[in-house]
Amino acid sequence: MGIITIPYFCRKYEFDNPDLLRKLVKYLNIKPVTGDLETRGMRFYNEEDLLFVYNQIMNIMEAKENEYGGL
After folding, report:
1. Beta strands in 1-58 (DSSP E)
2. How far is residue 70's CA from residue 43's CA, in Å, rounded to a whole number?
3. Where residue 39 falls among pLDDT bands split at 50, 70, 90?
């Protein structure tokens, strides 16, 4: 795994809520490998970091589905 942007990550893993991923990355203070947080330039993140956040989101969604019998 290498570095990846959030939009490309979402396309690669078929995750249709990039805004949620961006907010969680910001909240968890995951720093980009390249790019400037103050500009609108491309920010590349370690794919492992984004995959960890993605897997946690999926685990929460699965737990909620099991708890409530489906959303």
Report:
1. 3-4, 45-46
2. 35
3. very low
